[in-house]
Amino acid sequence: MTLSKKSPYRVGLYVRVSTEEQAQNPEGSIKSQEQRLRQYIDFKNMEGKFGSAAELFVDRAKSGKDTNRPQLQRMLQCIRKKEIDLVMVCELSRLSRSIRDFTDIWELMKAHGCGFLSLREQFDTTTAAGEMVLYTIANISQFERKQVSERVSANFLARAKRGLFNGGSVPFGYEMNQENKGHLLIVAEEAEVVRACFDMYLEHGGLATAAKVLNDRGYRFAKTRTGGGDKARLGTFTVDNLQGVLRNQAYKGIRVFVENGESKVTKACWPEIVSLEKFDRVQRILTKNFEGRVKTTFPNRYPFMLSTLMVCGQCGDGLPGKSAHGNGGKVPYYEHGWAVKKQASLNKKIFNCSPTRFPARIVEPIVWQEIVKLLSNETYGVALIDQANLTHKKNSKVSEGDRLRVKIKGVDDQLGALAEHLSKIPAGVSPAPIFTQMQSLTTLKIGLQKDFEKLQVSGDFCDKPASLKNYQTYIKVLCTVLHDIALPEEKNALIKALVHRIEVFPDRVKIKFLVGEIPIQLALDFFAKKNEEKKISEVTRNKGLNVRNPGAKKFLVRGSNRELTNGAGGS
User: Fold this and answer.
1) Domain ranges, residue 431
2) Full-model pTM
3) What is residue 426's DSSP assignment?
4) Do residues 444 and 468 share a domain?
5) How many domains does the chain have?
6) DSSP state of 242
7) pLDDT tens, residue by residue, 193-222
8) Which has the closest alpha carbon to 160: 88, 249, 80, 38?
9) Which residue in 22, 62, 262, 409 could disulfide with 69, CB within 3.0 to 4.6 Å?
10) Looking at residue 127, which CATH number applies to its domain?
11) Do 204 and 210 form a contact (C-beta atoms < 8 A)?
């Protein structure tokens, strides 16, 4: 890269490795990349005042396919704040393997006067030809990643066409044939439960009734899954999981696969549990019952403005909006959706939380009052940021969350590498060891994901809060549309732009606001872009946002970015 800046550079060194194995090696790629970058700076300083390493950004076990990398996002923040004016990598693919993402990063660098230097490619970005080469190499990196993905997909499709099982959660009633990979064996006890599902449905003709009878007679699913799957089975029968069994063509010995977007079938490499004649009889009844349902629209349906945000403060279960008819007409409420659903087919219902329902007409005004207070009272936002900073500073589990994310990503990358290796296995060589390793990694990933979800639900994990200045600017923009909002769906959009989660307890409501650094900055960038599109005055642009920001309503319509959030509680 040809550099024309006269004063020494403040260099940001960016290092990335793709796998957990690389990340755990103290003398591996991470150390080598950092050493090469620092040696280059030392060499350039021998020729003159080149600069010094201001920041080191290391993304461990992170793929370059997207920008969902914490250290990359931190580096972009440093560029925006002009804390670094040159980014150095060992090769372009360390920064990005997506041409779209690279374009966005490069445009951000140019807009903030930041240079880019790759040791391997040695780009000269000061010329049109040099910039063209830069984009060409980025295209090649993306092409290589897509080629690997295509080879894996082609191999999986070829196996599916032969009726082989490609891995993943094994259907209830079967187990993997350890001597003949891709084939399944019948588990006698589980197969009897599957056959009972078909018989009970044919006898009673309805999903709800059949599920209740199966539960009453003691039929149960095995809760644990083999071969993968992100959640354990419920154990008892519901309308949904019973229908899943009855619709599963694997039970009649058929392998379903998708080719060119079209669903196709072939004879499976495993025996049937249910006869073709019985399976087809059940399908005809299911289809008839589905088509016979009265489909009505509800123009007067209650507009639940806290939809998707409500959770029970006692158990963490989501609280979707429901309604029932009472003496005074329709009564809207937020209910323990999953707890109610999974016990719908049980005669004896036991709920762990009390109450199980929260009236919408009580909860919604409380939340809206807090939203108005936040947008109208400047000290409210100051208190939120202060609280978020204090929580983040004291929170020892932030690093634990980062560690789990690194490990999950590392497992994903290892699975991708194994899938690629699988596509290159010569004919006649058994893929059994690879399948075994992939199964072990999948089990490990499920455990890590559960640990991460528990950390998030507990509220002990939070990301770095936005600066007070940025948060106040964000609030100021949204305040401009407050008095224009009247419809419940508009209120819902505004609440989602400000709130991460609403926890409801028997005696109080706790609101966790969105104050994360990255989503707030993304929103401000969006507002600024809309200002430029509207060609507002130069003075207003320099201040960042105007009183009637044209991007505010468009931002609410498109939905807020809810990743990397920091929940600061307000009750």
Assistant:
1) 397-457
2) 0.51
3) P
4) no
5) 4
6) H
7) 999 999 999 999 889 899 999 988 989 888
8) 249
9) 62
10) 3.40.50.1390
11) yes
